[in-house]
Amino acid sequence: MLSDYAPLAIYAVIVLAVVGLMLTLSFVLAPVKRYRSKLLPYESGIVPTDPARKRMSVRFYLTAMLFIIFDVEAVFFYPWAVILHQLRWYGVIEMFVFMLILLVALAHIWRKGGLEWE
Amino acid sequence: MIRLDTPDPFGIYSNPVGHWFVVVIAMLLLAFVLITATAYVVFFERIALGWMQRRPGPNRVGPGGFLQLAADGVKGLFKEGFAPVGVDRVLFVVAPGIAVASVLLGWAVIPVGIWGSITYWISDLNIGILLVLAVSSMNVYAIMLGGWASNNKYSLLGGMRAAAQLISYEMAMGLSLVPVFLIVGSLRLQDIVGFTVHWGPYSGPIPLLLLAPVSFLIYLVAAVAETNRAPFDLPEAEQELIGGFLTEYSGFRFFMFYLAEYLGVLTQSTLIALLFFGGWYLPLIPGAIALFIKVVLLVFIFIWLRGTLPRLRYDMLMRLGWKALLPLGIANVLVTSILVVLLS
After folding, report:
1. d(CA A116, CA A59)
2. Closest C-alpha to B176, from B135, B144, B208, B142
3. Do the Cβ atoms of A66 and B322 come within 8 Å?
4. Which of residues 50-69 of A touch B (CB under 8 A)?
5. What's the confidence (pLDDT) of residue B15?
6. Cβ contact (<8 Å) for B123 and A7?
7. Is residue A117 part of a domain?
């Protein structure tokens, strides 16, 4: 029922208001005293020479891609888990076939070293 | 929505405007209680860590140091929160807001047992815990954006680490809950707490820990990792990354990230209590007190882990997430599904 979401919407507005209040209060109450060396990015006392936003290791992107594969799989599990009482063996076998494909993928990634961080 | 067993107290429900007024008051009260309780989680942690390290912990402000956190909060509000040069100003300010909002929003579907059969929850959604998982994973954006917006090498490294860690353990967390849904057949937390068994002479609610112990273990590890707590606090990692994504944060925005972290501890402890320990059911003890005891014990476990275990190395962390928890989670789902169908 969509009307179940009405309290959630009201609560979301309240949460945003609370968070907004926190952020505004810190702007209003806090003193401001700025000078050049305070505003430098912190790099253990050394003046930074080059921009901080550099290229990152490709491992992070790989992890993000693997996450999408396996998290979408977890999303498929949820509706299946709720109605397994009705699906019974049919549901179990279906899910085993689905899992088998994913496990082959996982084994392949594992063997190729996609999960190594050393 | 408030659900009371007493039929229409004070004629509130029959009056539509009055109903919504009460609902909004209750929501504000919940937000207030949560933020205050978070302060006391911090206090509890500092006292407990003090005892573990054979020192007194905070004991100066108020009786037994009880007002320490109020003093810290007021101090935080009056501290300058400056943004260094080169910072993406909008994202830098928005990020701590996302962190706090993402944890507070999860409480929309978390039911709190109050007394006897009286229970309070904001929104009775049939997707239940799916909403908690969805909004609490928004936390990745807060840390990632905070780290990227800071224009600092440590922040960016911490942010990237945090993103990879959070998404890796989110998967394990999502998988670990599937057996619970298989057993209960519902995503609503009220149904999960109220799950009853009929075993011979015993008939009544049961902690799901007994039926899904592997799920509990995976969930506990994933919950510690998701809240960035030691031994999984690599995004901060003071010794190697100064403070990770927090390096450039100061003033109340820094406090907000901490508020989000401890709110996360409180949320995860409550969820574990509801999912695996039977929520507000405890023989002879009223609902609110039973839930409170369970949540406090679980918060203590979080603190205990921090006081005992050294931080993991990054490759160990990823190995644990991908090579241990993920296959274990999948095996857990498959075995439980067979057992559920066999025994039903």
Report:
1. 9
2. B208
3. yes
4. 51-54, 56, 59-60, 63-64, 66-67
5. 63
6. yes
7. no
**ipTM for the complex?**
0.87
Single-letter amino acid code for the residue at B94: V
Q: How far is A94 from chain B (nearest CA, A)?
A: 11
pTM for this predicted structure: 0.89
Confidence of residue B248 (pLDDT cuts 50, 70, 90): confident
**Predicted pLDDT of residue A7:** 79
In a domain, B210, yes or no: yes
Concatenate the DSSP letters of all residues of B61-77 into one string. SSGGGTTHHHHHHHHHH
Decide if A71 and B123 are in contact by the 8 Å CB cutoff: no
Structural domain contains residue B148: yes
Q: Is the per-residue pLDDT at B210 higher than 70?
A: yes
CA distance, residue B97 to nearest chain A CA (Å): 6
- Answer whether A40 sits within 8 Å of B85, measured CB to CB: yes
A7-57 confidence digits (pLDDT tens): 788 888 888 998 999 888 888 887 888 887 777 778 777 777 777 777 778
- For residue A100, the enclosing domain spans 2-112
Residue of A nearest to B122 (CA): A7
Q: Do B341 and A25 touch (CB under 8 A)?
A: no
Which residue's entry shows tokens 């995976």? B218
| Nearest of B139, B159, B307 to residue B234 by alpha carbon | B159
Give the DSSP letter string of B24-39.
Answer: HHHHHHHHHHHHHHHH
Percent of chain A with pLDDT strictly greater than 70: 97
Helix H or strand E segment including B198 = strand B196-199
A90 touches chain B (CB under 8 A): no
Residue A18 domain flag: yes
* Overall number of domains in chain B: 1
Tokens representing B231 are 């031994």
What's the CATH number where A78 sits? Answer: 1.20.58
pLDDT band (50, 70, 90) for residue B6 = very low
A81-114: pLDDT as tens digits: 888 888 888 888 888 898 898 889 888 988 988 7
Give B344's Cβ-side CA count (13 Å radius).
17
Chain A residue with minimum CA distance to B108 = A8
Tokens of A67: 């996450």
Residue B3 lies in a domain: no
Domain that holds residue B103: 86-339
**Residue of chain B whose alpha carbon sits nearest to that of A71:** B171
